[in-house]
Amino acid sequence: MELIPLAAGAESLAAHRQRLGPLPTLPSGQLIAELEASGLLGRGGGGFPVGRKWRAVAERSSGGTVVLANGAEGEPLSLKDRSLMAGRPHLVIDGALLAARAVGADNIIFYVGVEHRAAEAALRHALAERTADLRGHARIATAPAGYVSGEESAAVHFVSAGDARPTTTPPRPFERGVGGRPTLVQNVESLAMAALIARRGHAWYQGLGYGRARGIGLLTVSGAVNHAGVREVELGSTLGDAAAAAGGLKGDVGAVLLGGYFGGWADVEEQWGLPLDAHSMRARGLALGCGVVHFLPAHTCGVEASARIMTYLASQSARQCGPCVFGLAAIADASRRLAATSPLADDLERIVRWSGQLTGRGACRHPDGAVALLQSALQIFADDFAAHQRRRCLTISEPARVAVA
Amino acid sequence: MSETLHIDRIRCDGHGICAELLPELIRLDDWGYPIIKAGTIPPNLIEHARRAVDACPVLALRLVSMTAVTPNR
Fold first, then answer.
1. B3-65 adopts what CATH topology?
2. Statement: residue A309 has pLDDT above 60
3. Contact residues of A toward B, CB < 8 A
4. Model confidence at A136, in pLDDT bands (50, 70, 90)?
């Protein structure tokens, strides 16, 4: 296991160095070329190529850029970033140090969710062990709770001005970020992977993975499985493999939420052989996102589960952009009425229409992600939504188990 | 030069004047916020688009020349 420690607790600097050796000292151009050749994609949700992102910042750098290691992980069903920081803090620090050298940064900020206590403690302890490497150029910023706090412009805004709400882009962070300087915002798992690729080369990473997928990654598997938790898999492992890695399915399962609340619902039977990697999933209209795999028990109503998610996402709007504030609230209200089998006459018709109207109409992609989830729900639970509009539920229902904050 | 309309969604308060001045390209959603037709502005509408931009009371609407694609996340 490269990213998940075998022993409990945080890996010490000594254990980390014994396992992986010292931090390599590749020239900046060579390191970026290695990352590009590896094909490593970002793990925060967007899946943007890591090497290309580093190059974009490096090209704008005249020194004095900033690396923002993003471990805010606001996704309620995701645990992988906090687990990684809590277990292998030095690997994350390695990645941030390499990124700083590659893009000419003299300032590293580790952005960690306020509720991720173990991760912050591990990182703080690890930073204290690395004072020689870091020479006072790194610090931790505590991200306020909330779904959008980890959005990259929100992260930059918080570090610059104490306000974790997204800002209008362009300029994007790689152009003008923290304190007006070009800023590399990179998810902590992506940084950890970069630190491994820097040591072992792109061929090592390319040698991992199934089918056309390359590399390894972290998933958070939850819901109707026997052993929920964070799992490290070779990319291209199937949905069935992910279920097996979590001890197998528990009871009957109809649907699975892939990629988190900005991802989408899928039919378990239909997608059992789906390779879990960004390209394969995109080809099927799905998204790996931040690696969430949540199995919905068959006795849980999909309309109810989706209404809870929409309600949560509406509550997490940064309340800056009208279409997001009013649109998501209206969708959440109508979804809840539908879930309770007491809809207004045209509630289903309206959420179908609204689900097609909000994409691209916020400063950040919060409304885009929310309606993508809704659209998948309308497709996968089509019969259920239609029945609920007729005031009937097709599920012998227990309360939905999708955990929402 | 091809131009598109861009809205600063944080500034926009949904006054709706843009949709009145440029109904060919802008309509309003159920809450009064503009929905812009995708694509570049046809030459015959450029003048109207400029007028809509100038009329926005919160300066949320502007014309932008097409720019290169940039990395997002």
1. Alpha-Beta Plaits (3.30.70)
2. yes
3. 42, 44-48, 52-53, 56, 152, 167-168, 170, 172, 174-175, 185, 320-324, 326-327, 330, 354, 357, 361-363
4. confident
Q: Is a pLDDT exceeding 70 seen at residue A246?
A: yes
Does B69 have pLDDT greater than 60? Answer: no
Q: Give CA A150 to chain center in angstroms.
A: 9
CB pairs under 8 A between A and B: 61
Does domain A13-206 match CATH 3.40.50.11540? yes
- What is the tens place of the pLDDT at every residue in A51-65? 999 999 999 888 789
The answer to whether the beta carbons of residues A234 and A275 sit under 8 Å apart is no
Please indicate if any CB of chain A lies within 8 Å of the CB of B26. Answer: no
Q: Are A322 and B30 in contact (CB < 8 Å)?
A: no
B70 CB near a chain A CB, below 8 Å? yes
What's the whole-model pTM score?
0.91
DSSP code of B41? Answer: P
- Annotate A319-385 with DSSP letters as a single string: S-SHHHHHHHHHHHHHHHHHHTT---TTHHHHHHHHHTT-TT-SSSSHHHHHHHHHHHHHHHTHHHH
Tell me the three state secondary structure of residue A169: coil
Which candidate from B31, B70, B73 shows the least CB-CB separation from A322?
B31
pLDDT of residue B68 exceeding 50, the answer is no
CB contact under 8 A, A46 and B73: yes
Whether A56 sits inside 8 A of B71 (CB atoms) is yes
B1 confidence band (pLDDT: 50, 70, 90): low
Q: Where are the domains of chain A?
A: 13-206, 216-297, 302-389
The Cα–Cα gap between A219 and A203 comes to 23
Contacts of residue A47 in chain B, CB cutoff 8 Å? 73
In the prediction, which pLDDT does A400 show?
54
Give domain A302-389's CATH architecture: Up-down Bundle (1.20)
- Structure confidence by residue, pLDDT tens digits, B31-65: 999 999 999 999 999 999 999 999 999 999 999 98
Say if B63 is an interface residue toward chain A (CB within 8 Å).
no
Rounded Cα distance between A232 and A218, Å, is: 5
**Residue A288 corresponds to which tokens in the numbers above?**
């790996």
Contact A322 B14 (CB under 8 A): yes
pLDDT-above-90 percentage for chain A: 88
Say whether A216-297 and A13-206 share the same fold.
no
